[in-house]
Specification:
CATH architecture of the largest domain in chain B: Alpha-Beta Complex
Strand order of the largest sheet of chain C: 2-1-7-8-9
Number of helices of chain C: 15
Strand order of the largest sheet of chain B: 9-11-8-12-10-13-14
CATH architecture of the largest domain in chain C: 3-Layer(aba) Sandwich
Structural class of chain B: alpha+beta
Number of domains of chain B: 2
Radius of gyration of chain C: 20 Å
Oligomer: heterotrimer
Largest interface: A-C, 37 and 61 residues
CATH class of the largest domain in chain C: Alpha Beta
CATH superfamily of the largest domain in chain C: HypD, alpha/beta domain 1
Radius of gyration of chain B: 19 Å
Number of helices of chain B: 8
Number of domains of chain C: 3
Strand content of chain B: 15-25%
Helix content of chain B: 25-40%
Distance between the termini of chain C: 31 Å
Chains: A alpha+beta, B alpha+beta, C alpha/beta
Largest sheet of chain B: 7 strands, mixed
Chain lengths: 78, 342, 364
């Protein structure tokens, strides 16, 4: 369910933002994203609506999480 | 259950298209050519090879309808010239004698537009040295076609036995693709569905005859096909089918342009399964593969040529995709490509 | 993010995660059956060939996670009837080929009805702005698409716009599946993107009620493998907890603004999920204040009686995780992507379609 695609916000205009999906740009609605957005933020796009601002730190955290899973040691949590 | 009417899915260049062809066409016209050096309709190759006393004639034909008729990177005129020239090239006929062009125009279409399409066609013909030698024009009522249908036929002479059959692969042969895949299909889908991609998505529509010729200069090319409808996935399955060999494709080696990959991801489609119009997939003897790839990279339209896979004796007729994480089969896509949300 | 996508698909790390899974499966003495409830998980698992590398003794089964597949046939019939009545019907590309009792929207379109593919609910409203005709948005999907539909209704779309809601809400379906006596599940992989909206707390009740671990998982190959590791760790330790293994997209509290929009516009009512049965409080109906945009209240919709066709189709069993596509007598014979009987063969997320399209999994 629910094809979600992350993209980087490059422009904001009212309740829409232009987001860069790895080279393809598309306007998406941001009225239900539930966070204040700035240019440079990453958002999760689903069917033309951003539904989540992705905190940059969480991307690094993801790699730590993979490591924790691979080694069986719990990474230092925040 | 049978389909009682022709549906759009029958035209999508997928398994359904093949079924329709098998039912309607191959049954009637599919007799094998008497001369074993010939290639007939039953081969469902890119064109026919008709042996003559002093060589062979290669002939191919294609009708071109595209929605929209003018799209980022080209138009139906450019597509019609490239499509036929590329089918000839995929048969190994890289120096065509000429084209015929039959145009069906919808009444009400501005003359300027038809003029522009024919200009595009002429530009390709000039570049390849393959003039339009004969043609036909018909006008039909408003709504009977969508603006224009352009049918081109191409003819070339080659030396006897010099054609590149789809069935030519042997185990160990490498697969070389001349550039990024899926650009045409993704650009068209985005344009047709009115998706507002702010950055350019451009069709790759271009002739590939020079690429095939260059490859054959430096290495032993054993098979060729141009991935059009149904994309790279359909093309490699056709090669596997025709040669009755297995193929292993390294997914990470298959070039996909960033913008195309991003748009495809947003649309939920696989760039390996949608059309290219300016690429060629070659089977190459293993010892020559790197040389062929490097030679292609020196040619216009070949800068991103890559070795993407190999032929194996295992799993005949099937293409296995190595995703880097695991393996799966890469089948022929089954129907019309639609964007999805899920 | 997408430029970093390769770090989520790193083959070396995938190998190490697989080794870890192998050790964990051995530690719990094998035969673990995990269910995911998300078509995108199935798609990711199939697309990347993940099952080809799972250790023996670990089965990942498909649950009722494909919104297209669980859209009930009478709902498709309603959309077809509206299209044939001369209204513009706009919907997501996934829904176009889903068979109704007599036909799909694709068949209605081939016969001349005006059926449009849209990428978002707001594009459907845009179509209504450019025509005087009635435009009906056939709205399918779970929380992630229901919230956008709600956002469009809240902003006051044109008067000729309406919504035929087939939206559904996932968590109750997990209960129904877990409760079924024939379904053996040792843990759930929960759908990451639905959880983006709902948050993770919503799964606490599933954990408590069924004493099963739930891991919220993402959709990159390493996300899936890591989530399976966490699930097996819980099983090894005999713990039933909710673990968020997709923190980059899922906040524990979810997305409050999206939820507010969702529950302001929609209410949960009992309804049929195709093949599974009546699921309590899991179909989303438009609330009274937005009733003017409810296609079911705006139009008299006449649909054909269910002819019982497809009665051999075991879509429901498959969606409930009790059967695999190849268990179906119709699979690959009477039912193919070209001529589907059940929705499971239609959607890109449908388990039968995926099984057919990716040709099954290959063991190296």
């Amino acid at each position: 369910m629910c094809l979600g695609v992350p993209g980087e916000v490059v422009e904001i205009d009212g309740n829409e933002a232009r987001a860069d999906f790895g080279g393809a740009e598309k306007w998406v609605r941001i009225d239900v994203v539930g966070a204040d957005l700035s240019v440079g933020d990453y958002v999760l796009n689903h069917a033309g609506f951003a539904i989540r601002r992705i905190p940059e730190a969480q991307v690094e955290r993801t790699v730590e999480l993979y490591e924790a899973a691979a080694t069986g040691e719990v990474a230092d949590d925040d | 259950m049978t389909d009682r009417t022709v549906t759009l899915a029958h035209g999508a260049g997928t398994e359904r298209t093949r079924e329709l062809l098998a039912d309607l066409v191959v049954d009637r016209f599919g007799d094998a050519p008497a001369d074993p050096a010939g290639v007939g309709l039953a081969a469902l190759d890119d064109g026919a090879v008709l042996p003559t006393d002093d060589g062979a004639v290669v002939i191919t034909t294609d009708s071109h309808v595209v929605d929209p008729p003018s799209f980022p990177g080209g138009d139906v005129g450019r597509l019609a010239a490239c499509g036929t020239i590329n089918d000839l090239a995929a048969m190994g006929a890289t120096d065509p004698l000429g084209l015929s062009s039959a145009v069906v125009v919808e009444a009400g279409t501005p003359v300027d537009r038809v003029d522009a399409y024919l200009d595009s066609m002429a530009a390709v013909c000039d570049r390849v040295g393959c003039p339009v030698r004969t043609g036909d024009t018909k006008v039909v009522r408003d709504g009977e076609v969508d603006e224009v249908v352009v049918t081109t036929t191409g003819v070339a002479r080659i030396e006897r036995g010099a054609h590149l059959p789809a069935a030519g692969l042997s185990p160990g042969d490498r697969l070389v693709v001349s550039g990024p895949v899926g650009d045409h299909g993704v650009a068209l889908l985005a344009a047709r569905e009115d998706f507002e991609f702010a950055s350019p998505l451009t069709s790759d529509v271009a002739p590939v005859a020079h690429l095939v010729a260059a490859a054959r200069e430096v290495g032993r090319v054993t098979a060729a096909t141009d991935p059009t409808r149904g994309g790279f996935a359909t093309a490699v399955n056709e090669l596997a089918d025709a040669a009755d060999l297995g193929l292993v494709v390294e997914e990470r080696a298959v070039p996909v342009a960033d913008a195309t990959a991003g748009a495809a991801e947003v649309l939920g489609i696989d760039p390996l399964t949608v059309a290219c119009e300016g690429r060629i997939v070659l089977g190459v003897a293993p010892e020559d593969a790197e040389r062929v790839r490097d030679r292609l990279r020196d040619e216009p339209g070949g800068a991103d040529a890559r070795i993407v896979g190999r032929a194996v004796a295992d799993h005949p007729g099937e293409v296995v995709l190595d995703t880097g994480v695991g393996e799966r089969y890469l089948p022929v896509p089954t129907g019309e490509t639609l964007p999805r949300i899920c | 993010m997408t430029t970093d996508a390769l770090s989520f698909r790193d083959p070396d790390r995938a190998d190490r995660l697989r080794d870890r899974l192998e050790r964990l499966v051995a530690a719990v003495d094998g035969d673990v059956r995990v269910m995911h409830v998300c078509g995108s998980h199935e798609e990711a698992i199939a697309e990347f060939g993940i099952r080809s590398v799972l250790p023996d003794g670990l089965t990942v089964a498909m649950g009722p996670g494909c919104p297209v597949c669980v859209t009930d046939r009478p709902e498709v019939d309603e959309a077809v009837a509206l299209a044939e009545a001369g209204h513009v019907v706009a919907t997501y590309g996934d829904m176009i080929r889903v068979p109704g009792t007599e036909k799909s929207l694709a068949a209605a379109r081939d016969a001349g009805a005006d059926v449009r593919t849209v990428y978002s609910a707001s594009e459907a409203a845009d179509i209504a702005r450019e025509t005087d005709r009635e435009v009906v948005f056939f709205a399918t999907g779970f929380e992630t698409t229901a919230a956008p539909t709600a956002a469009v209704l809240r902003e006051g779309p044109p008067a000729n716009f309406s919504v035929l809601s087939a939206h559904k809400y996932v968590p109750p379906a997990m209960d129904v599946v877990a409760d079924h006596p024939d379904t053996r599940i040792d843990g759930f992989l929960a759908a990451g993107h639905a959880a983006t909206v709902t948050g993770t707390d919503v799964f606490e009740s599933v954990v408590e009620r069924h004493d099963l671990p739930v891991v919220v998982a993402g959709f990159e190959p390493l996300d899936v493998l890591a989530a399976l590791v966490f699930l097996l760790e819980d099983l090894r330790d005999g713990e039933a907890t909710v673990t968020n293994a997709y923190p980059r997209c899922v906040a524990d509290a979810g997305n409050e603004r999206a939820r507010t929009a969702l529950w302001e516009v929609f209410e949960r009512v009992p309804g049929e999920w195709r093949g599974i049965a009546q699921v309590p409080d899991a179909s989303l109906r438009i609330r009274e204040p937005y009733a003017e945009y409810d296609a079911r209240r705006r139009f008299e919709i006449e649909t054909p009686a269910d002819d019982g066709r497809g009665s051999d189709c075991i879509c429901g069993e498959i969606m409930a995780g009790r059967a695999a596509p190849r268990d179906c007598p119709l699979f690959g014979e009477a039912c193919t992507p070209r001529s589907p009987v059940g929705a499971c063969m239609v959607s890109d997320e449908g388990p039968c379609r995926i099984q057919h399209a990716y040709g099954g999994d290959r063991r190296p």
